[in-house]
Write a structure and sequence with these properties.
five-stranded mixed sheet; 41% helix; 2 domains; alpha/beta; D-Maltodextrin-Binding Protein, domain 2; four-stranded mixed sheet
Length: 274
Amino acid sequence: MNRQLLQLEAEIGTPLFERMPSGLRLTPAGEAFSHHVITVLQDERRLENELELIRGVRRGTVKLMSVEGVNVDLLPTCLERMATRYPTIQISAHTAGSAQTAEAVINGDADVAIGFALPYKETLRQCAVGRFGLGAIVPPDHPLVRQGSVTFAECARYPLILPSPALSTHEVLRPVMAHHKRARTVLLETSSVELAKRLAARGVGVAFQTRIGLEQDLADERLAYLPLKAAIPLTAELGVYVRARRTLPPVLDMFIQIVAREIERRAAGDASRW
């Protein structure tokens, strides 16, 4: 392998790797070459998919990375529609934090990412986005439920279950937490949406989340969602992302359209409750 790498560098005329005691690291030329290789391989897959469509055989694969919250209801709804309309298309789905989903797309390890509040990057293209209000999550019999909507200060009278910096809701909450000067009891800080939900359902503390990921708990009345009042709306953006400047294969484009329509539909319904 080393001989092949040295031969490739000789053909290109510049080093692709820095040889370090800890291993190899890509040079700027290596980074550019790496992105070119990813483009070539993904374009090869796109061509294969398009040829299949021309032949009338709807086959292909979609590699998906998504955040935990969409696995409860939004993503199953989209995958069900995909399976009904295009039953021969294979989906590979993996769960990670928002930042990890973006990196997977940029590195070519995934075709599409679904994540909250991804920062702008030239290497990413946003295909769809929906804004969802942040709310307090408590059991249906919690005293706060009588108010309908709450401020962070009102929530801070009770033990709090806060999102860790790994979650996008941490950044959304940060301004109101910084503005709150009174003492507060933080029972837990966690990067697990599911753990926060389960503790909130037991009445252990007040958690914070959008309605995405709460669909079944709200329908079964295991949890109540109370919109958070603030000087400016506290919202989290849920987006669909692909690698920038990539030509989308038809199979991937079909999937993105299904997800985009579902996110937009739910965001419109959520906005009506702010």
